[in-house]
Input
Amino acid sequence: MSWRLVRKGARVAPARPQIFLHIGAMKTGTTFLQQLMVANKDHLAEAGFLFPGARWNEQDRAVRDVLGITRRDPPMRALCEGMWDKVASEMLSFDGQASIFSMEFLSFANRKQAARVVSSLDDAEVHVVLTVRDAAGALPAQWQTHSRNGGTLSWPAFAGGVRRGSRFGRLGGLAGGKGAHVFQMGQGVPRMLSAWGAAVPSERLHVVTVPPSGSDPALLWERFATAIGVDPTVCSVAAGTRNSSLGQPSADLIRRINARLGRLPPSEYQPTLKAQLATRILAGRSSIEAGPTLDMATRTFAVAWNRRVRAAIERSGAHVVGDLVDLPVEPPAPSAHSDTDTQWGTLRDPEPEEVLAAAVTARDGLTALIDKRTKRLSRLGGVADQNARAGREIADLLRPSDPWRDASDPVDAAVTELTSLVRVAIDLQHRVISAKKDAP
Output
């Protein structure tokens, strides 16, 4: 790297713009790192580092734009069009130490797409940072994300598909179905290293291992900061927060609602189901809900996957920050004093009572959301018409604390009612957006 000297003994910005692309992978502390950098954006700037965009969602939209993710969703495409060029121009014109771009959808890129991204930054020295995590933790986290992004697979079906797909290499997504495809897109570190390693030299490819569960969050930031060359003390770690997670009952409830709704474009799904139902309403139950358990077969898969990931990292020649020991390659030994299912758990669906408890929380939250959007529509001069009134009538029917108890299938009854409320909430959101456009 060549450095530009402005006075004797002073080392300032590199002669070429330096850009670090944090590409993921998913479920590797990306939200924590992104929110930490957003909260400390001014401190990073004082240290000579740019975190581009007026808001982080500009980075999100830039990736959707450059990878063409929005083709089938016209409203989302309109929001994202031209955003990559805007953010890239901001980074290329920055004359400080480096720019830091972080959006995990970059990990979805194939070789051609990765090359296009890097070539669009051709005037810069581009580095790629990949965070990786033990598959035993990433796999259930990926299922929870699958559920909150429109997925319909149960936890046992998802995990079983991932295991089946792992036996067939590149064809695993077909052999294991949707679960294998989702996991390999989100956690396919060998594919990611191959795609991005072809776009940048190995000395500009950095792998950061995620510390084991229960570690101080500051350790992940310290490792990431080391990879990008910033003093970790520049940022206050207390400002970062972890991605809001869902317990298994809540995630299972959402995937059941997804199945009833059918496939929705992100512009419809995200404002109501992801941002509201999952993140604002149900995520608060995570402290009282258990996560999905892994059986011995899935734990065995996880260590086999870690072995594959470690081998790919070593082949890539990437600069490793952290320790590959954080990706265990030996299965835990079962105790001789307990049977395997008791010690390691089983792949199971949540009990109906657990799903119904989450459904009550969902009902109350959706009722409040419908009321809020109805009032907002009225303030904008829109008409809270028959659909909105029907939504409130449905909500009123759901007021009892145990509304589905007498149904022949209480969970099915709950999902039916909640799906109706979601549809009303989505319709109101459309009407709010339309009223805003028509407002003088």
